[in-house]
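tokens incoming
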């Protein structure tokens, strides 16, 4: 009994698997906030933010090439969730340090609008860059 690799790789991405990956990714994102807040005590905000940006950019630009491989897809989603938890874990401390306790909650609220706005910009840039190539 032979199995074509491409057929097997596509068939294993069913709804059950994606639900499990999403649930574990959400758990990792939530628990990683403790890790990132501890790392903020040891490293500078600038270093952590650049690290998160580099890792998340690498994951975003290469997930297209691995999405058919089940184990690598799980690792990519978990790493992306880890980065997402990092962004949400270090911004409250920095916003309170920079803007003070009075305005920190307002500035942190704008962060959530920034995530939504960046998704719209991403769709625009992806369609625009795709049309160029």
């Amino acid at each position: 009994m032979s199995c074509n690799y491409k057929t097997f790789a596509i068939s294993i991405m069913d709804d059950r698997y994606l639900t499990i990956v999403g649930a574990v990714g959400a758990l990792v994102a939530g628990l990683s906030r403790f890790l990132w807040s501890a790392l903020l005590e040891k490293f500078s905000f600038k270093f952590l933010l650049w690290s998160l940006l580099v890792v998340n950019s690498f994951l975003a630009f290469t997930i297209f090439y691995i999405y058919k491989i089940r184990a690598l897809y799980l690792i990519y989603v978990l790493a992306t969730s880890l980065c997402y938890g990092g962004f949400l874990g270090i911004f409250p401390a920095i916003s309170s340090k920079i803007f003070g306790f009075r305005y920190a909650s307002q500035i942190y609220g704008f962060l959530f609008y920034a995530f939504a706005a960046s998704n719209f910009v991403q769709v625009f840039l992806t369609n625009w860059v795709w049309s160029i190539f």
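note: The mean pLDDT is 85.
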